[in-house]
Amino acid sequence: MSDNSDNAATDGYSEEGFWLKVKQFAVKAGREVIDNALCLYYAAKRPDTPKWAKTIIFGALAYFITPLDAIPDLTPMVGFTDDLGALAAALAMVAMYVDDTIKNQAAEKSAAWFD
Fold this sequence. Notes:
- The protein is mainly α.
- It contains 5 helices and 2 strands, in the order E-E-H-H-H-H-H.
- Helix 2 packs antiparallel against helix 3 and helix 2 (31-45) runs parallel beside helix 4 (81-93).
C-alpha cells in the first residue's frame, strides 16, 4: 500500500476507475450499491478520516471497480450482490466517518442518476 496525495491508496483503486464504473453501471447496479459506494468515496475524501479507515474504504471501492468479481456484474439481478456486501461491510466498519454531510453529498450525486 502506498500514499496517493493525502489518501491511502489500495492496489486496484483509482478515482478515474471509480467514476467510470459508477457512470457505466449506476442504473444496473441499483441505488443502494451506488449510495454505499458514494458514501465511502466521500468519507475517504474527508481530511479527518484516518488512514486505517481509508484503507478499508479504498479496498472496498477497488473490489467494486474490479471487473473480476465473485459474481460477475453482467449477471442479471445478482451481479452486484457481492459488491453490495463488500461496500456495506466497509461502510459498517467506518460508519463513524459517514456523517450527514457525507450522506447528503452521496444522495445529491445519486439523484443525478436515479431521480
